[in-house]
Amino acid sequence: MPKGSPELTNARKEEIVRACEELYKTKSFKEITLKDIANATSFTRTSIYNYFQTKEEIFLALLKREYEMWIDDLDRMTEENETLTKDEFADKLAHSLEKRAQLLKIMSMNHYDLESSSRLEQLTEFKTAYGGSLRAVMRCLEQYFPEMPITDKQHFLYTFFPFMFGIYPYTVVNEKQRTAMEKAGVNYVFMTIYEITFSCVRKLLD
Fold first, then answer.
1. What is the largest CA-CA distance in the chain?
2. Collapsed DSSP state (helix, strand, coil) of residue 67
3. Taking the mean position of all CA atoms in its chain, how far away is CA 36?
């Protein structure tokens, strides 16, 4: 790590992550290179290695940031709403993920490779954010459904979080995929991120 203030280090890491985020809007994970990311920043590819050793570490940092923003949304929800019905909670939780398409996209496509190709330090930082999201959802359940047994709350968490990995590929489908399913005779119901999340949350609460 180069010498400098923690503020400067964090600012440069954030610039790299933002560049990666912009590239990911138009390119696939495989298409994006460290050279591409460097070209979208104010410094060189060699300088990137002072902060991230692999492309996967940059994407993992982006995923970590997405989790942190989701946690902020969940905490804001509990602060602004003292009580919620099951329908209201499902609605607000679904809307919170509707805003985090980037999180869902990375989760569904590259999550395992990101963790496998990142150093322990970066992976630990990410797992801290991931653990924070588990606790944030648990806080929601404790606030809005205090009568729910702890075993049911745990069941909600360990069903909902794995479910999140499938939201993006089930809701974002290109024309080739649509055509292939039609030709294969697959009776597929297309749903939005909000619709599929709301449906899952309501079933888990029942």
1. 60
2. helix
3. 23
Which residues lie below 8 Å from residue 163, measured CB to CB, with a gap of 6+?
200
Distance, CA of 95 to CA of 106 (rounded, Å): 18
Please, what are the domains in the chain?
1-51 (1.10.10), 55-205 (1.10.357.10)
What sign for the dihedral angle of Cα 112, 114, 120, 124? negative
Q: Locate tokens 């607000």: which residue? A: 92
Residue pointed to by tokens 């400067």: 8
Residue 140 contacts residue 89 (beta carbons within 8 Å): yes
Give 191-202 pLDDT, tens digit per residue: 999 999 999 999
How far apart are alpha carbons 27 and 78 in whole angstroms? 36
In the predicted model, what is the mean pLDDT of residues 63-82?
98
The pLDDT assigned to 3 comes to 56
Encoded tokens for 54: 């692999």
Q: Is the pLDDT of residue 9 over 80?
A: yes
pLDDT (tens digit, 9 = 90+) per residue, 93-114? 999 999 999 999 999 987 888 9
Q: How far apart are CA 128 and CA 19, in angstroms?
A: 23
Give per-residue pLDDT as tens, 10-63: 999 999 999 999 999 999 999 999 999 999 998 888 889 999 999 999 999 999
